[in-house]
Amino acid sequence: MDVAAILELYAQGYFPLGFEDGVGWFDQRAYGTSLRALMPLDERFHVPRSLRRALNSGRFEIRINADFMGVVEGCATRGWSYSSETWLTPELAQMYLRLHRAGFAHSFESWYRGELAGGILGLALGGAFIGDSMFYADADASKVALVRLVEHLRQRGFLLFDVQVQNPPGALRGLRGLAAGVPTEAARGPRSPGPLCLGPDCLPHRAIIWGGGDFYNLP
After folding, report:
1. Confidence class for position 186, pLDDT limits 50, 70, 90
2. How far apart are CA 88 and CA 91, in angstroms?
3. What residues form DSSP beta bridges with 214?
C-alpha cells in the first residue's frame, strides 16, 4: 500500500493493527465504543499536581524525531521482542517508517541522561495530530512527552488531537468523546494534508474532523 492510500484510510477515521497475515484497518468500534476520543488542546487539558512536579524538575529532555524507530520499537515491544504478541508488527513498523520518511509520521520523545525514556508515535494530517501509540521506560516519561506535545500542538495552531479511544488514565487528562456523525469545528482552507509543522511560521492547512467513520471537509 502506498503512502497516499494509507493517508486516505487515516483521513476516513481508520487506524492500523498488525497481524501475522498482514495489516488490518479499524475504527474505534473495534474496541466496543461508538465514541472517538479527542485530547483537548484548550483549558480543559488537565495536568495533575503530581505530574507538574515531574515537568518542573527538568528531568526529561524533549526531542522530536530524534529516534523515530526507537519509539516505534518501544511502542511495539514495551521492552520485549517482536516475537511477543504485539499489534505493531515488523510490517507495520516499516509502514510507519515510510510515513516518517514522507514527512507525516512523527515521534515526540522524552530523554533521560542521554537515553530514550518514553515517547509518542503519531501522524500529522493538516490541522490534526493522530496519536497511534505511546510507551515508557520511566513511569513519567510518556506523560511528560504528552504534556509537551499538547503545548507544541497549541503553539503550532493545530485544531485537533485524536487519540482514538479513551482509557482510564486519559480521563485524568480531560479526554472527551465525540459522538458519531457530529462535526465539531470548521476546517480552514483547502484539503491539504501535510507534515508536522516545526517551523515558527508554519500553520496547519486544515482541520480533519471525525464523525461516524468519516472526516468532514467543512467550509
Report:
1. very low
2. 8
3. 211
Check residue 212 and give its pLDDT.
34
Q: Which residues pair with 125 in a beta bridge?
A: 128
Residue of 156, 157, 164 whose CA lies nearest to 199: 156
Beta strands in 27-184 (DSSP E): 36-39, 61-64, 105-112, 115-125, 128-136, 160-164, 176-178
- DSSP code, position 66: T
| Pair 157, 20: CB distance under 8 Å | no
pTM of the predicted model, to two decimals?
Answer: 0.75
Over range 59-85, report the average pLDDT: 82
Query: Torsion angle of alpha carbons 169, 175, 180, 184, nearest 10°?
Result: -170
- Residue 84: predicted pLDDT: 54
How far, in Å, CA of 12 to CA of 25, rounded?
Answer: 11
β-partners of residue 129 are 124, 161
End-to-end CA distance of the chain: 30
Q: Which residue has the cell 492500523?
A: 16
Average pLDDT over residues 53-76: 92
For residue 142, what is its C-alpha cell?
A: 510518556
